[in-house]
Design goal:
The chain is α/β, with parallel strands linked by helices. The protein has 15 helices and 13 strands. It has helices at residues 34-46, 74-84, 101-115, 129-133, 143-161, 219-228, 239-255, 277-289, 293-304, 331-344, 348-358, 368-380, 396-411, 424-428, 438-442; strands spanning 6-10, 51-54, 89-95, 119-124, 169-172, 177-179, 189-190, 195-196, 211-214, 231-234, 264-273, 362-366, 386-389. Strands 1-2-3-4-9-10-11-13 form an eight-stranded parallel β-barrel, surrounded by seven helices. Strands 5-6 form a two-stranded antiparallel ribbon. Strands 7-8 form a two-stranded antiparallel ribbon. It is globular. 47% of the residues are buried.
């Protein structure tokens, strides 16, 4: 069977373009509307997407004057969407820096049960001093320290998800035994960051554990992904950059003893569709013209660690920006933005327009055929296993993609016409992980 690409719908209130909320048809309150997200999830499921995905940060992110930034906690939203959908995967972001392993493992195991095995966890370490100050810290932990904590956090979560054997629940009414206590165990983890007794208070879930997703492309991020991730959400602007990242991460995964096919690499793309190229470019231009440059420049200045007045709108970026090694948060996104601006010699105003659609993800403005061509080129060219679809405006952008691009991908034999499994692991072609403790019990150890 020919390899099929994977499509995730990355959902964000009125869309990924920062000015999408200003469109006449947009609902500025969509970010807290269950009906809005239910419609989007059902649209993605109609398009046979692998999953819907929600980003998150435990801090008010960005300027409230610039775009809608208030958002509901995504694992709560996943629980609601589990009841409104049947087959599509459900992925939420949660931070290892500002959660505890027990509570988060319990939450995702619960979602996996409630959804029948469709849960995924996007593991992030959360950059920024503002988030740290919401949890009693004066500043964010160092980049390396956050990733070391994340690795141990995942190890603890894996132990907790495996603290119940698959056959622990007997439900033997005649004998009056609900579960075999010998098949439920404490994990007794004692490490540098966590001390956790266990066991989890939720039986092992349908997928064994949720699909682990990772969304960082720094050196530390790639190390974490090689060891633990089963899908990686990333951002690249060119085919060559995407191919290099793809090959690097597949090799790293093999080096640590994992099957490279067990990690799916999914760059984000922001499609802006039109019946003609001129129509697509007009739609893109209309969105860009709605950007408030004074807000956007302030956010860009924060990312680049410079003062806003050092970024005149009609000049290129200053030559003396900090090196990536000096950046303690969002290293890979910093590098991507600077490289994009330098490579194309963009003014600050032009760079703001390019970032307005997808914060560094590649924007594709064109006809459905052109967008399908680009997806096919990257997929067959060894640059991606699939894509995170980041519609510029919602719900219209997702509906247009499902109605006009997905059928083209299906006709080319690149994408499924029907779901062939019921869990997110099955959608991704991933095996159900073995219980790290159960093998010893079955062997009599």
């Amino acid at each position: 069977m020919a390899k099929k690409l994977h499509l995730n719908a990355f959902l964000m209130s009125t869309g990924h373009h920062e000015a999408s909320w200003r469109l006449p048809e947009s609902d500025p309150h969509a970010g807290t509307s269950l009906a809005h997200f239910t419609r989007l999830a059902q649209t993605a499921e109609r398009g046979k997407f692998d999953s819907v995905f929600f980003a998150d940060s435990p801090v008010l992110f960005g300027s409230v004057g610039r775009r809608p930034v208030g958002a509901v906690e995504p694992t709560v939203l996943l629980a609601a969407l589990a009841a409104a959908t049947e087959q599509i995967g459900l992925i939420a972001t949660a931070s290892t820096s500002y959660n505890s392993p027990y509570n988060l493992a319990r939450r995702f195991a619960s979602i996996d049960h409630l959804s029948g095995g469709r849960a995924g966890w996007n593991v992030v370490t959360t950059a920024g001093a503002d988030a740290a100050r919401n949890f009693g810290l004066e500043d964010q932990p160092l980049h390396r320290a956050r990733y070391e904590r994340a690795a141990e956090f995942l190890e603890v979560a894996f132990k907790l998800w495996d603290s119940w054997d698959d056959d622990a629940v007997l439900a033997d009414k005649a004998a009056g035994v609900w579960a075999d206590a010998e098949r439920v165990r404490a994990v007794d983890h004692a490490g540098e960051h966590f001390s956790v007794r266990g066991p989890l208070d939720v039986p092992r879930s349908p997928q064994g554990r949720p699909v682990i997703v990772q969304a960082g492309s720094s050196e530390d991020g790639k190390v974490l992904a090689a060891w633990y991730a089963e899908a990686v959400f990333t951002a690249q602007q060119t085919l060559e950059e995407a191919q290099a990242f793809y090959n690097d991460l597949k090799v790293r995964t093999a080096v640590v003893g994992r099957n490279p096919e067990g990690i799916k690499i999914l760059p984000g793309i922001v499609p802006v569709l039109g019946g003609t190229v001129a129509e697509a470019l007009r739609r893109e231009r209309e969105l860009d013209e709605l950007i408030r440059p004074e807000y956007a420049r302030n956010e860009l200045a924060k990312t680049l660690r410079v003062a806003p007045e050092d970024l005149p709108l009609d000049r290129e970026l200053p030559a003396d920006l900090p090196d990536e090694d000096e950046i303690e948060g969002a290293k890979s996104r910093y590098t991507l933005i600077v490289a994009l601006a330098r490579r194309e010699r963009l003014t600050v105003r032009e760079l703001i327009g390019r970032l307005g659609g997808g914060r560094g993800h590649r924007t594709l403005a064109g006809t459905p055929e052109q967008v399908a061509d680009e997806i096919e080129s990257w997929f067959l060219g060894g640059a991606a296993d699939g894509f995170n679809i980041m519609a510029a405006a919602l719900p219209s952008g997702l509906e247009e993609f499902v109605d006009h691009v997905v059928p083209l991908l299906q006709a080319r034999g690149l994408f499924r016409e029907e779901y062939t499994g019921s869990t997110l692991r099955e959608h991704y072609g991933l095996p159900r992980p073995a219980n790290q403790y159960e093998a010893g019990r079955l062997a009599g150890v």
